[in-house]
Amino acid sequence: MALVKVYVNYKKSILNPEAQAIQKALGRLGYDNIDDLKLGKYFEITVKDGVSRADLDKEINEICDKMLANYNMENYHYEIVETEAAQ
Amino acid sequence: MALVKVYVNYKKSILNPEAQAIQKALGRLGYDNIDDLKLGKYFEITVKDGVSRADLDKEINEICDKMLANYNMENYHYEIVETEAAQ
Predict the structure, then answer these.
(1) What is the pLDDT of residues B47-57, one digit of tens each?
(2) Where are the domains of chain B?
(3) Is B54 touching A (CB cutoff 8 A)?
(4) Is B22 within 8 Å of chain A by CB?
(5) Closest chain B residue to A49 measured between Cα atoms?
(6) pTM metric for this prediction
(7) Checking CA distances to B62, which of A35, A54, B7, B37 falls within 20 to 30 Å?
(8) Could you tell me which chain B residue has the CA closest to the CA of A45?
(9) Nearest CA to A4 among A45, A42, A63, A36?
(10) Which CATH class is domain B2-82?
């Protein structure tokens, strides 16, 4: 089994009103140590056994490009964690 | 500067239709190696200098409980990455 953690974030040039609203609300609650807050998506994908690392890289990149991230507005990165058995 | 990465995921007992829809769509596209797909939120919080580790832990837990996660439906965990300077 492999667990793939995918992080999708807005590109720097893209405004994210939800993140801005949260940051402002934290300021109003007195948390004035917060310099910046970014909000993105986080996927945990469990992949079946028997997929080579090269195939897995190819597949994850395809999935991210096609479905998980909008390449006009978002960047993604991922990490692959090998696991012994299904959780 | 400290960078805090916060991961918010639905609890196991909570249905997540968005994650299910993505997983089914991947199956239809031929990605049948995917055993499970979870979708959560990912925050990157930059905290100003001069906050002790204990205060930072306290503050991040408060912020997560009050604002970033819904404790009825979601779990969170976080990691603190020390950084030299602002990005």
Answers:
(1) 998 888 999 99
(2) 2-82
(3) no
(4) yes
(5) B33
(6) 0.86
(7) B37
(8) B37
(9) A45
(10) alpha beta
